[in-house]
Design brief:
Blueprint: E1 14-19, E2 24-32, E3 38-40, E4 45-47, E5 52-55, E6 59-61, E7 65-73, E8 80-90, E9 94-105, E10 138-146, E11 149-157
């Protein structure tokens, strides 16, 4: 008797598309066709993009079942498509490859910061919040103009 094996058919592409700086979430189903439970640890789930988040980070697949794996992505650039891959390496199930297509769409118009108005000689404090979505240290510079003088304040994100 001759047994011939071939690689499994590729899984369909999971598309994660949404407005820039908004979290996009989808699910892929992991199937266990075996009659025994399969434990998949976090080091067996490999992603090739650091901006793709996976929950839960470990799975226990009971026999003859499907378990959803939640995938999240926050695009940082509009009209930019990235092809990515999630690979699950299990001794029992083999190597499962799930292709992803990550795409950012044009965001809604940004909120306009309120204008700071103060009477001559008075003091006014206005608080502004800035969100940074980059996963590495970044330096920001804000320029505040006051009559003919200008002051530059530097903010450093130490993620």
């Amino acid at each position: 008797m001759i047994v011939t094996t071939t690689p499994a058919d590729p899984y369909p592409i999971t598309e994660l598309a949404g407005p820039v700086r908004e979290m996009i979430t989808s699910q892929i189903l992991i199937t266990n066709p075996l009659k025994t439970a399969v434990n998949i640890k976090s080091d067996q789930i490999i992603r090739d993009n650091d901006y793709v988040l996976i929950k839960p980070d470990s799975l226990i697949l009971i026999p003859d079942s499907e378990v959803p794996l939640e995938i999240s992505y926050r695009p940082l650039l509009a009209n930019n498509t990235i092809n990515s891959l999630i690979t699950i390496k299990s001794p029992e199930l083999g190597e499962l490859k799930y292709p992803l297509q990550l795409r950012g769409t044009t965001p809604q118009p940004p909120k306009v910061l309120p204008t700071m108005i103060a009477s001559l000689g008075s003091e006014k404090i206005v608080t502004y919040n800035f969100l940074c979505y980059i996963k590495k240290a970044t330096e920001f510079a804000i320029k505040i103009e006051k009559f003919s003088e200008s002051v530059i304040i530097n903010f450093i994100n130490s993620y």
